[in-house]
Design a protein that fits this description.
Layout (H helix, E strand, L loop, with lengths): L3 H11 L11 H13 L6 H9 L11 H19 L14 H18 L1 H6 L2 H14 L6 H8 L1 H23 L3
Helix pairs in contact: 2-4, 2-5, 3-4, 5-7, 7-9
Amino acid sequence: MLSDSDIEALEDILFAEPWGDEALDFFGLHGVVCASVVGPASLSAEDIFRLATGAEQAPSGQVPDVFRQAVEQLGRDMAHALDMGQPLELPEPEDGDPMNALENWCAGFVDTFLENEEAWLEAGEEETADLLVPMLTLSGLFEDEDFQNVRNSEKLSRQMADAIPESLTDLYLLFHAPD
């Protein structure tokens, strides 16, 4: 589990120049790491940095140690929880809008899925697509009318949000359970 100071250090990196305007916040970064853990393609710290900041590469070609250590810790914690049969808990904001934080988390998750879409769909396109519906819907990345109708309904949005932990577990099992 990351401490508040670890999260602050991550956000200092994420919001630094020159990518600060394009970077994900901690919730989006958590979504990227989560997709790397549950999906078929385990991403390096460099890949996660690139997705989280929108930068082609890290400054001086090196991912900051604080960033690397934090994403590796997050990934280990998530994999351990899933291996122990525990559902993943998404981070919640201490203040502010929880649905905005969830949208940011989903956007990071979906961006990571899209980065490796072919590998995700190889395991079974229909099953994978069904399990991704809550994240795709709540990400705000798609203008689909059905997705917008769900996002505009507090009840349906909550149902989708509540389905995410089970979807994550099922995705993890789909890609990582022994045959």
